[in-house]
């Protein structure tokens, strides 16, 4: 969807690779979308925290498939919950 509107996109399989990719590309980040639970040493909260300093004007979307995700560092960050189908 972002590419269809003319934005370039990057995709990473875990938080560590995301930060490496962002640092290497040194691109203007308009929107960062990350999940709370990610493989690697950085979860979505850490990626959001590590992104906010070098790109302070970027919008950051943190999503979760869990009803109430717990941030590992105690930061009070807003989280968009995924829609769930009843089991």
TrEMBL record:
Coiled coil: none
Boundaries of every Response regulatory domain copy: 1-87
InterPro entries, per the entry: CheY-like_superfamily (IPR011006), Sig_transdc_resp-reg_receiver (IPR001789)
Modified residues (4-aspartylphosphate): 35
Annotated region described as Disordered, given as residue ranges: 65-87
Keywords (A to Z) from UniProt: Phosphoprotein
Domain of life of the source: Bacteria
An individual GO BP term: phosphorelay signal transduction system
Gene3D superfamilies linked: 3.40.50.2300
Signal peptide range in chain numbering: none
This protein's record includes keyword Hydrolase: no
Keyword Phosphoprotein: yes
Protein name listed in UniProt: Response regulatory domain-containing protein
Taxonomic source organism: Methylobacterium tardum
